[in-house]
Each structure stands twice: as structure tokens, then as C-alpha cells.
What we know:
InterPro entries: AMP-bd_C_sf, AMP-dep_Lig_C, AMP-dep_synth/lig_dom, ANL_N_sf. It comes from Pueribacillus theae. Residues 405-498 form the AMP-dependent ligase C-terminal domain. By secondary structure, the chain is α/β, with parallel strands linked by helices. The chain has three domains: 9-65, no CATH class; 76-397, 3-Layer(aba) Sandwich (Rossmann fold), CATH 3.40.50.12780; 400-499, ANL, C-terminal domain (GMP Synthetase, Chain A, domain 3, 2-Layer Sandwich), CATH 3.30.300. It contains eleven helices and 26 strands.
Amino acid sequence: MLQKPRYHRFFTIKAVxxxxxxxxxxIGLLMLFKIRVLLGSVCMVNEVMSRQRAYDLQTKExxxxxxxxxxxxxxSRDKLLRLKEDKLQKIIEQxxxxxxxxxxxKEAGVSPSDIRTIEDLKKLPITTKDDIRKSQAEHPPYGDxxxxxxxxxxxxxxxxxxxxxxxxxxxxxxDQEVVTERSARSYWAxxxxxxxVVQNIINPQLFLGYWFVHWGATRIGCSVISMGIGSSDRQxxxxxxxxxxxxFMTPSYAFHLAEFASKKGIHVRKDLNLQYIVxxxxxxxxxxxxxxxxxxxxxxxxFDCPGMMEAMGWGYTCKEQKGVxxxxxxxxxxxxxxxxxEPVQPGERGVLVLTTLETDAQPLIRWWTDxxxxxxxxxxxxxxxSHVFPGGILxxxxxxxxxxxxxxxxxxxxxxxxxxxxxxGEFRIVKDxxxxxxxxxxxxxxxxxxxxxxxxxxxxxIKNVKDKIKAKFNITPEVELVAVNSLDRFEFKAKRIxxx
Length: 500
């Protein structure tokens, strides 16, 4: 195997005449691109980073490594721990420059010198979305936790505001580079390669997730079609015309687009060139039931890439599909009980808490993500040493409903309904006067509106729905059947709780 200097680019030229030339050029870490040249006969030049491509001299074939950054992705746990704690001290000192974190430290009665290890982080309070909203409201527009002058900012992004007042995130040029590398590492683990044609069906506007896809796929060297959301007809036309091999979208839109294609007479398994669908923006991308249904419908491999604006691309699935890998060299993670704020035990679910290690503009210390994950001590057989969360993001804590003491999540209900024959594709959780106790305002009954296909026996369908929900949550729902397509579909984040 011919080894190239790390971070150096090289050209591999392969002509029809079997003439092959391999030359290394240390031209730095710049944006990837593809060029075509004529060298005696038709040939292709792919410019890629040396860590992405291995050249097998014996077989005269060009192959790809399974790892984007093999050093970081396979680093020993002991070495990784030392690396993270070195980064932690730097990010603590950086964050302490801001009034926001000075208050946090003062409230906890600690100084930066008290935080030396990951275990020491417990001395500091949690940082929540409400903390950020309050900071930006009292110190508009960016809050009082920005650690760099505005002249160093390369971009401004906003949350959707789906759970309250939208918040603003700023990136320095280095932040953008870090996010781009993190994105490329994730996509490489899926199997995306420079020859892929990627269709970006993520909401653009000010949302960082859209650019996360664009930057990462471009860094790999893919041809990227940045569509954004909207016009399902146009999305399918583009997929067909340009031979799209990979599409990024939400789980709910993957189901909706397949339904739409069927009505248009398009057989997504036969008429398209798709090989991968990457899910983001909603829980469910790592749920085995939801993933298998999408794979079966589209005839593709499905991968999960969870994230949030404040910690974009914290995790990704690999080809083994054992769960979501944490980007360990970029984040310190905790999984805490939502009520006690204490660490959960293996096999228990809790809220993911993140501390950023590679963020310049707006570092976050003990960020309460509101995302539930399952804590496990198992590792993935893929060779990566990063921690894995089976099932990825299980649900959002702000989506959770407590019904007679039982925690219920829309994503869990969706997973159960996908296993019921005759399910029409959509449902709603209904909160009304008949399901809420007047004295306390607490829910005591789970009411569902569920789409049922017309050819399905209604009595059997309701029984099967109740059985599946009972098995998953130990609660029996009240079920109202509605016609297929009577409930709205979603191009972006699905909202399945309605109040009457």
C-alpha cells in the first residue's frame, strides 16, 4: 500500500490505456473538487485527501479506506481520554472569558482551575436552551457567551423555534472547517464516496443542518444538488434526471415522498438510482422498524445522522448499523436521568448532555440536548473505538407525554404503528378535555387518530394498534380511525401532538 503524507492531496490518474500515474502534492486542506482531463485517452482525475484513498500497487486498482480519519476513529480509549481532557481545559478557559460562564462558575462556587478531568465537569451546572434564550434576550442579539469578535464570524444560523423563541448560532471560519470535517467523517462512514451524486432535501433558510450536508458532501468530492424542501414533484424529477445516488431528508418525508412517487406512477426501487438515504431532523433514523420500512420501500441503505444546531453532527451510524457513534474527539458526553440529573446505568435511557471541545465562537459546557438516548457500554465491530448509542436519538424530552405516570413519545408510537398491517402512514396524539384531568391538567388517557387503509378490517386494525401500543408502553390507547391522506404530511419536522 502506497502511503501518502497526512493532510496532503494527491492525484490518481487512470486512463483507458491502463496508464496509471500517482503523484502527491502538499497543497493543503482546501475545498475538494473533481476535474476531467484528456491524457492520450479518456481519463479521470479525482482530487482527494490521502487519508481517504489507498492505492493498491499489486492489483492496480483504486480502493477506499473505510475510515475518513483512521487515527482519530480507531484511537485507543486511554489515549482518547487524555486527548479529550487536554481539550477540556482549553475550552473551559475559553468559555470563562464570557460573562455567561463566569456567572455559571460563580453559582457553582468553582474556578477554571477546578475543572481538570471529565469527572470534574459534574461540579458545573447544566446549560439549557432557556439559558441561551435568556442570554440572547438580555444581551441581544447574540447573548453574552460569544468568545470572539464579530470580525472572526463567518456565518450566522438560527434554530427553527419549534420549541420556543429561535436562538442564534455563530460560526468562525475555523468552526466552519471543523463542522465540515465532522460532516465528511460521518458521510464517509455511511459509504458515501466522491463519485456519488447527493441531493440535499433539508430545510435551508438559516438552518445549519442544510449547510452541514452541503459542506460535508462537497468536502468528500461529491456532486451536490442542494434542493432544500418543497415540491415533491420537482424532487423526484431531479432524482431521475441526474441519477442521484444519495438523498438527505427527514424520516417522515421519506415515507411521504415514496407515497407521492407511487401516485405519480414512479417505482422508487426501479426508476431511481438511489443507493443511500440519510435521515436527520427527527428521531427514528436508527429505529430498526422505521429504518427497515424505509429500506424496504426505497430499496436503499438507510443511515442516521442526528444533530442539533448547537452541536451539529455529534454522531453518525456506520455500515454495521449497531447504533450512533459519538464524535468522541469533538465532544464530552453524559447520559443523565431527566429528574435527578444523575448518570443512568447501562441499559437505561436518559438525556444526552454534551460539552463541545472544538468550538471557537460559542462553546457549550454541559449542554442539555433534550434528546433521549440509550446508554450502553458495548462497542461496534466496525473498528471505531467511539461510544455507540443503540437506537440513536430515541425521542425528544420536549415531545414526551406523561400519561398516568407512563412516559410516552411520538417516535415510539410511530415505531409501533409501522408494525401494524393496514397503517396508512400518519397519526396524531390528541390532547382534549376528555383526556386531561381538570384538577391537575395532567393527561390520564392516550387518544390517537390513526390512518387506516380502506381495505383493512377496522376491528382487527384497532385491536392490533392497541396490542402494539400496550406492549411498548404498557398503556391501552383510545383509537379513532381516519382515512389515508386525511392528516397532513411533513416536509420538515413532523408535529404529531394536537390540542383540541
